[in-house]
User: Fold this.
Amino acid sequence: MKLSPTDRQEASIQRVLEEESHGALIAYATGFGKTLITSEIILRAGWRRVLIIGVRDTASQWDERMREQSDRLQSVRIINSSKAGQAAFDDFMAGRDGIFFSGLEYMRSKDWETHDKIDPVTGKPELEIDSKTGMPTGKTVRESKRTDVYGKMTRKFPLDAVVVDEIHKVANRKTNGIKTLRSIKTDWRIGLSATWFGNAFSGAWAPAKWVFPEHVDGSSVRWVRDFCATETLYAGGKEIEKVVGERIPGSFVATLPCYLREEPEPEPEALVMKVKLTPEQKAQYERLEKDKMAWLKSQHPEKGDDWEPLIVDLPIVERARLRTAALGEMSFDADGEIQFAADCVSNKLSALRFILDNKWAGMPVVVFCHSKRFAKVVHSRLVAAGYGAQLWTGDQTGREREEIKAKFIAKDASARYIVAVIDALREGVDGLQFASSRVIWLSRSDSAIYNEQALGRIWRRGMTSEYGEFQHIEIVSESTIDEKVRVTLSHTQAAARASMRTAA
Assistant:
C-alpha cells in the first residue's frame, strides 16, 4: 500500500532534498518512518544509481516500500549470494543504473579478504596465544587484507547516493565496514538510525564524519577534546583517557548541517516484579559473589552426575556469571559448558507463568531475555506446559523468523508468545506491534541501546490498542546484580537520548 507522508515527514523530505552538503543523518525513532522518508527522497531526487546498505533481513522491506511508493515502477535489486543476487552484483559493478541493496556483512566480505597471518620468522601461520597460560591455542591468527572492490568500482562509476540503514553498526571508527564506506565515491550520503552512535557517545564521530565529511573534524582526538566528557584510567602503567559521555548534551548534533530526529514520548516505566532467588540459586550466587567460585552439578555421560567448581578470575567474567546466576540454577553440560538444565529451578519462570495466566491471560506477549541458554529453557518449559510459544534467537534463518512473525501477527495459537533473545530481535523486524502491546523482561541486555531497539519492536507507531495501553513488566531477582543493572541502564539511556535530541 502506498503511504502518504505526514506533515512532519514531508518537511523532512523537503529539508533533505534542499541540503547543500548532500548529506543527512535521519535519527527518527523506531517506527517513525525512516524507510518511507528515504524512499520518497530517492524517488523525488531522480537518482539513477543508489546503494542501500543495511541489515540483511530488511532487504524485502526496502523493496516493498520502494515498489509501493513508485506505483510499482521502481524496485530494489538485492545483492547476495543467490543467483539473482550475483546478477545484481555484476550489474552494480558494471555501472548499470538501479537501486541496489547489500547487507553490511556481505559488502564487507567483498571488500576484505581474510586469511591466516604468516609468522615472518618461520614462514608458517601464526598461532593464537592463550592470554592466561601463554601457550598456543592451536588456532591460527586471522587478519584482513583490503581488496578495495567498492572503491575501485565507484571511482570508475560514481554513485548518486549511498544510504546506510542502521548506521550505528559502523560507529567504531576502526572497523572494516566504515573503512569500506569511506572508499565509496558518491554524491550523496544518508545515514539512518534511531540509535546512530551505538552504545556510547564515543561512537558518534565515525557515522557523522562519513555523512558530513567536510563539516566534521577529521581528527577524532580533537573531536573528543571539543565535545566529550572524559575520565582518566590507569592500565598497564599507562594513562588512558576514556570517553564517558557528551560534555554538553546535544551540542554536537547542533553543529551538523542536516540532522533530523523525531521521537515519541518516553515509554511508560516498566512495572517491576521482584522475586527471591531459590535456595539453590542463592547458594550459587552468594558463593560467586563472595569467593569468586561456586560448585555446579556436572553431567558426565560415563560417570553420571558429579560436582565441579566454576571459578571466575576477571571482573568482566564475574559480572557475566552473576547475571547468569540471577536467572536460574546453573550447571555444566557434558562438554563442560555452563547451561541451564531442562528442569533447572528459577522463580523467574514461576513469575512469568503467573503473569501469562493471571495478569495478561490470552494476550500475545513478547518475552525478552539477554541469555540464549535461558531463553531456550523458558521456551521448552512453556511448550511442555501447553503454552503456544515460539523461540526467536540468532540461530534461525530469515525465512523461519518471517514465519514466526506471520503466525504471531495472525494470532496463531502456536505463536501466542515469542521468547526472544534481545540481541536477535532488536533490528530489522516490523509488524509485531500490530499484534501485541505487552512485553516481559526476564533480563535486560547490558546495552541500553539494545534494550531500546528491542522495545521498539512493540513500542512504536501503529501499536495495537486491542489489549489497552502499552505495558511492560521487568522480573528482577531481589538483592542481585539485576537491581544494579536497572539503575545503570536508566542513567545510560537518559544520557544517550539527551545527546541525540535537538534543541527545542
